[in-house]
Amino acid sequence: MRMVDVIRKKRAGEEMTAEEIRFVIDGVVSGSIPDYQTAAWAMAVCFNGMSDAETAELTLAMAHSGDVVDLSAIRGVKVDKHSTGGVGDKTTLILAPMVAACGVPVAKMSGRGLGHTGGTIDKLESIPGFRTELGRDEFFAQVNGIGVSVIGQSGNIAPADKKLYALRDVTGTVESIPLIASSVMSKKIAAGADAILLDVKFGSGAFMKTAEDAIVLAKAMVAIGTEVGRTTVAAITDMDQPLGRLIGNALEVREAIEILRGEGPEDLRELCLELGSQMLVLGGQAKDAAEARDKLKSAIDSGAALDKLGQMIAAQGGDAKIAGQPGLLPQAAARIPVLSAADGYVHGIDAEEIGLAAMRIGAGRAAKEDKIDYAVGVELIAKRGHKVVKGDTLAILHTRGDDEAARSAAEQIVGAYELGDEAPAANPLIYAIVS
Ligand code: URA
What is the mean pLDDT of the chain? Predict the structure, then answer.
């Protein structure tokens, strides 16, 4: 088989056979297909799409390109959760202990941040001493013992996706529904959970700009999950502004603790209750979303959810006192207010721009090998619907000092705010559930 013929076939809009798809993925992993041919093929997929059968085949080929984790040594229905990427998205830090406190085992592998989006593993590593690399036996024993562990993704989960994604990122071929669906689902299938909850974002900070496109993506992923016997549910959620108020690694741990204490911003709390409810139902710990929500609220009110976070931190070598005293987390040396340049109602806050501003002051990585500063980030004071006048504080930068990076981040934050004369219509945070 020759790659050039496969590219021509896809360019002509024809359906690839399972054998051709496996040929592409094997060649991507072994390096026998050069990057320029893989990129040409990805562009042909972007233009011509893929059938459901092709998407399922591509997903399975990528899922089996590396290790496939067997979680059967962990008792109970393991439910994984994945977000298609957001800014200020610290839901895993909240959901993992919260649903574990309600009886759903969480054996989760998470990633690091790159570019404008943060990563759960970097956030957890802002807790002094916290270990994100556990051996398989320790990981399983922790989940069987306390019900929860979140660790870094092992080196060899879906290596085909890793290579393909890096290439898509630099060839303008990320935004393709079959390519995104197969990328996400290949990793979830390889990670071994019995059931999968997807948080599919739409809006300025997401790959999918509209709810309609997010629904198409969600349906494609749910269909793949169903096809391979993993119950899959997707929540379609708004990313027209960052989630919660805090963006940055230690800052996001702090906000997660606030939610687990029954405090914190309403949008984040509501999203966690909704996603957590779906996880409890998927995990067989509640008969419906209403019962699940009551259980989650009780876990917060009784302190059980926060205790579970403390147990997880202690088990993974971190300072468990942080769950009760988030002031012990790393703190930035300077706090610089970012002021509004105009009057108006906040209609939206470009999440990608806020993520990039946080990255500029050290909260994220521009390149994989960059070191991050756990203490720095952005605190949003005005969010969608707020009325501001010129000179009001829109946000506070938590930085190392009033340097060049802080000044350009402040400018970028002002530019990220979209102001209007009228109050904006209320946007539902959770637009739909696809199952
Ligand atoms: N997230 C992924 O894991 N893959 C994509 O292709 C896009 C978002």
Answer: 94
| H helices, E strands: number in the chain | 16, 13
Residue 149 pairs with which residues in a beta bridge?
107
Answer for the pair 161, 189: CB distance below 8 angstroms, yes or no: no
Please, are residues 107 and 71 in contact by the beta-carbon 8 Å criterion? yes
Distance in angstroms (rounded) separating the CA atoms of residues 176 and 49: 7
* Distance between Cα 78 and ligand 1 center (Å): 22
* 335 alpha carbon – ligand 1 mean position (Å): 34
Tell me, what's the ipTM? 0.97
- Residue-level pLDDT at 86: 81
* pTM score of the predicted model: 0.92
| Sign for the pseudo-dihedral over CA of 420, 424, 429, 433 | negative
Give the CA radius of gyration of the chain.
Answer: 22
Active-site residue, 269 included: no
Residue 151 CA to ligand 1 center (angstroms) comes to 19
* Residue in 126, 149, 182, 183 annotated catalytic: 183
Rounded CA gap, 223 and 234, in Å? 11
Where residue 366 falls among pLDDT bands split at 50, 70, 90?
A: confident
d(Cα 231, Cα 189) in Å, to the nearest integer? 11
For the stretch 203-253, pLDDT in tens is 877 888 899 999 999 999 999 999 889 999 999 999 889 999 999 999 999
Catalytic residue among 80, 89, 122, 161: 161
